[in-house]
Amino acid sequence: MAKPFEDTVLNFPILVGDIGGTNARFAILTGPHAEPKEYPVVKTAEFATLDEAIQASILDKTSLRPVSAVLAVAGPVEGDEIRLTNCPWVVRPRTLFADLGFSELIVLNDFEAQALAVVALGADHLEQIGGEPSEGVASRVVLGPGTGLGVAGLIHACHTWIPVPGEGGHMDIGPRTERDYAVWPHLERIEGRVSGEQLLCGRGLVNLYRAVALTDNKPVALETPADMTGAALDKSDPVAVEAVDMFVTCLGRTAGDLALVFMSRGGVFLTGGIAQKIVPALKSGAFRAAFEDKAPHTHLLRTMPVYVITHPMAALVGLAAFARTPALFGVETQGRRWKA
């Protein structure tokens, strides 16, 4: 009897792509032992469709012609038209075959790719924030505040790493302290609720900043997440300082909740540009205190390590590892794999 997943072998060259709400990153693998050939980051807003972006940014700039593709997209993968949550692009596999010449396509969730990266990256691309050393094959969680809030788990069973994608970034998140209760009424909501993604992403940080300013009747002096993180780190704007502190604390609470769900003795991994930019704030103590504040399991959380993934193309590393040797990973491709 065939082993699960062993029929997933792909033909080279293989295009791997990590497609988020704001940016898309691509690389081509020419063979099982070759390093990925990476291409400049693509701004999704600059192209009307995914097909146009691949043609103009990749295929028009190389003589390599990939015959297979493994794409990770920021949204649930369902049916023959896959819509991204925070981007107007729609992935249509049959159109990609006709327009770009692919003969096979696998589409995964973007945080499946991030989960795959966790076991493909070396220690030189991980910045640890507290906890004990990671337990070798213990469960893991990946959490990424970016354009949205991505979440995935990673479990080990039957000698295989199995990513568990989901939409955990849309879980409810509520106030705990007196200050939270003062700020929360000023937060922008979606259909009456505050989810993790309303706080823990780029627009979530803007939401927090504006709510803090409104609570204290202070001017909203900054507009972009980058301005806010910069002003918080150099302490030039008190509202930004508090907003980033609240962001870090809420991220710690959410990371701790997910660590309990997956019993993540293998670690919790923070990924994405925001986490990389605010490492000093994450190391200040507030994140770790919120992460561990999970009575009656405080002692358990104290042992669990947290890492910031510092590799700028982590998802591509995970996709490349899967594309080379898919049988090593328990990625279910039924309903997510197309052939011309």
Automatic annotation (TrEMBL):
Task: Offer an example of a GO molecular function term for this protein.
Answer: glucokinase activity
Q: Does the record carry GTP-binding as a key word?
A: no
A Gene Ontology BP annotation from the UniProt entry: glycolytic process
Compartments (UniProt record): Cytoplasm
Spell out the protein name for this chain.
Glucokinase
Top-level division of the source organism's lineage = Bacteria
UniProt keywords (A-Z) are:
ATP-binding, Cytoplasm, Glycolysis, Kinase, Nucleotide-binding, Transferase
GO CC annotation: cytosol
**Similarity annotation:** Belongs to the bacterial glucokinase family.
Indicate the segments annotated as coiled coil, or none if absent: none
- List of residues binding ATP: G17, D18, I19, G20, G21, T22
Q: What class of enzyme is it?
A: transferase
Q: Which InterPro entries match?
A: ATPase_NBD, Bacterial_glucokinase, Glucokinase
Q: Which HAMAP family match?
A: Glucokinase
E.C. number: 2.7.1.2
Q: So what does this thing catalyse?
A: D-glucose + ATP = D-glucose 6-phosphate + ADP + H(+)
